[in-house]
Amino acid sequence: MSKPVIAISLGDPAGIGPEIVVRTVADEGVKQVARCLVYGDARVIEKAAREARLGLKVRAIGQPSEAIYAPDSVEVVDLANADPAAFEPGKVQALCGKAAWEYIEAMVQAALRGEVEVVNTGPINKESIQAAHIPHIGHTEMLAALTGTHDPLTMFETLGLRIFFLSRHVSLRKSCDLVTKARLLDYIERCQQAMDKLGLGGGNLAVAGLNPHSGEHGLFGDEEVKDVMPAIAEAQRRGFRVVGPIGADSVFHQAKLGRYAAVLSLYHDQGHIAAKTLDFERTISLTLGLPFLRTSVDHGTAFDIAWQGKASAVSMIESMLVAARYAPAYRRTPAQP
User: Fold this and answer.
1) What is the pTM of this model?
2) Beta bridge partners of 109
3) Which of 78, 136, 297, 332 makes an SS bond possible with 142, Cβ 3.0 to 4.6 Å?
């Protein structure tokens, strides 16, 4: 089977995106499993490759069909929108926020046309995005708007541990309010569909408890009794492979050992802490439920070290390896209606 074409957005040009992108496309392990197509500004890529002393030849192209994927070169769909002389590294700037958005927009359109199989997003800066008056605060919101997808799923993967999230960027108080039977049932169904699409069919989804020890049957917190347990019981009656609730102090460790194919975390930090403590750099974010697979590093633009030769590309390299590993299953599995 041919290596998948994976599109990579440059991210915010003033951040560490350019440096980690060029190091990633030059990585031998990545080149063995994927054909990399960068969406960005060729001038920024040339500067980043030169400063990293990689000796990469930058090929500026207008569309994916022009790529030849020659050794020791990087294919760049060149939007020519971020002249390195026009922005300052490590700073919030509207120019860079606008450029980052345009890379994502162009890459998504290519994916919707079937010109690339997976999209991998470089880090963006929310303040720069806002300064550019882009009406979407983060990648997930952008991807949802560009594809017409309602409430995409987020899944983390690190060292074999997979974690879905019932809620993302809301307050802890609101995240507790979102733990309802109806919402859990919807997420359990969609998580199972996503697991099947990733080729993880047959494994169980474990639902983490919300309260300590899953509330001890209502002794301290009744969310499990009122909503979580009824949702799981109903899902099981419908034939879904789901178990729980299982105390959050043990379920992630058990999943890492292989007892469960994935865990549904009931709020943002519950799952983030588990994944990032296990391996911060290799925690990869996947967005599922879109018409295509999206992977990403789970770190920011790191303005404090941008364009200083200090950024690690470990996370982006890992995100490409994860993308390449799941791409064949996405090829075989038809999209959900």
Assistant:
1) 0.87
2) none
3) 136
